[in-house]
Amino acid sequence: MVMKDSKPRVMTVVLDIDGTMIGDISSQIMLYQLQNDLKKTSKVKIFDLNKFRKTLNEKNIIRPYLKKFLSMLTTHFNNIGCVVEYFVYTASEKTWAYFLISQLEKVLNIKLNRPLLTRQECDLTGTYQKSKSLASSICFKTLKKKYNYLKKEDIDNNLLIIDNTYEIFNDIDKQHLIYCPTYNGKYTENLPSLINETTFELLQKNLSFSSYYDFESTFYKFYVKEKYLERKQNQKKDIFFKKLIKIIIKLDIQDLSIKNISLIKTQLEKHKDTQNLKM
Question: Where are the domains of the chain?
Answer without folding.
Answer: 9-270
